[in-house]
Automatic annotation (TrEMBL):
<protein>
    <submittedName>
        <fullName>3alpha(Or 20beta)-hydroxysteroid dehydrogenase</fullName>
        <ecNumber>1.1.1.53</ecNumber>
    </submittedName>
</protein>
<dbReference type="InterPro" id="IPR057326">
    <property type="entry name" value="KR_dom"/>
</dbReference>
<dbReference type="Pfam" id="PF13561">
    <property type="entry name" value="adh_short_C2"/>
</dbReference>
<comment type="similarity">
    <text>Belongs to the short-chain dehydrogenases/reductases (SDR) family.</text>
</comment>
<dbReference type="GO" id="GO:0047044">
    <property type="term" value="F:androstan-3-alpha,17-beta-diol dehydrogenase (NAD+) activity"/>
</dbReference>
<keyword id="KW-0560">Oxidoreductase</keyword>
<dbReference type="InterPro" id="IPR020904">
    <property type="entry name" value="Sc_DH/Rdtase_CS"/>
</dbReference>
<dbReference type="InterPro" id="IPR002347">
    <property type="entry name" value="SDR_fam"/>
</dbReference>
<feature type="domain" description="Ketoreductase">
    <location>
        <begin position="7"/>
        <end position="192"/>
    </location>
</feature>
<dbReference type="InterPro" id="IPR036291">
    <property type="entry name" value="NAD(P)-bd_dom_sf"/>
</dbReference>
<keyword id="KW-0520">NAD</keyword>
Amino acid sequence: MGLLDGKVALITGGARGMGAAHVRLFLEEGARVVFGDVLDEEGKALAEETGATYLRHDVTSPEEWERAVGTAVEVHGRLDVLVNNAGILKFRRIQDMSLDDFDRVISVNLKGTWLGVKSVIEPMKAAGRGSIVNISSIEGYVGAEGLSAYSASKFGIRGITKSAARELARFKIRVNSVHPGAINTAMALDPDIVAEVDADAFVKSMVIKRFAKPVEVSHVVAFLASDRASYCTGTEVTVDGGLLTGAGY
């Protein structure tokens, strides 16, 4: 019996990286999955591989949120879980960062998360309960040089999560956040970051001295999405190998 048997899940940013790991694990755990992204080639390939439903989904667009949620309900008859996973990262120090770059990161990461929460309230109320899992970051706890916009967006996701948890508990909708650390994805290995970060010093600052596989985050997301986390809301879970406990970070 799967952890998510009978659940219908919508996952954003699902075409690659952590999002693709979420899609695969949710399917393994018995969920029916609709996922969106703006990476059509990768998204269609993953859909063909897994049998999940893919659609193009720009999370900054209210209209595309309406279409994504509507697709999940139309195809599967209900919506039980939202994983707000879509996000972008732009490494620029404040002095060198353009306002357009700052606005773009905030729009995708923070506005996109808020729109997601807003968009699923009615279908989850209709289903009688729901679980929303917002993907933040350890940069939602600590500032990182060159990541002012990203850190601001991930701090903001914590606030949205806390407020939504209070607002939506009356409808039996739980809202929690997950805070990954060093995960082996294309975004984390962005060339601009790799060029600026002392990789050896970074690994030495870790308690568990390695990058995580994306699925190691997915297992935590699946737990929070499941009924086994029925008494968890407003919860913040770090998946960082103890990085935030390291004195060197």
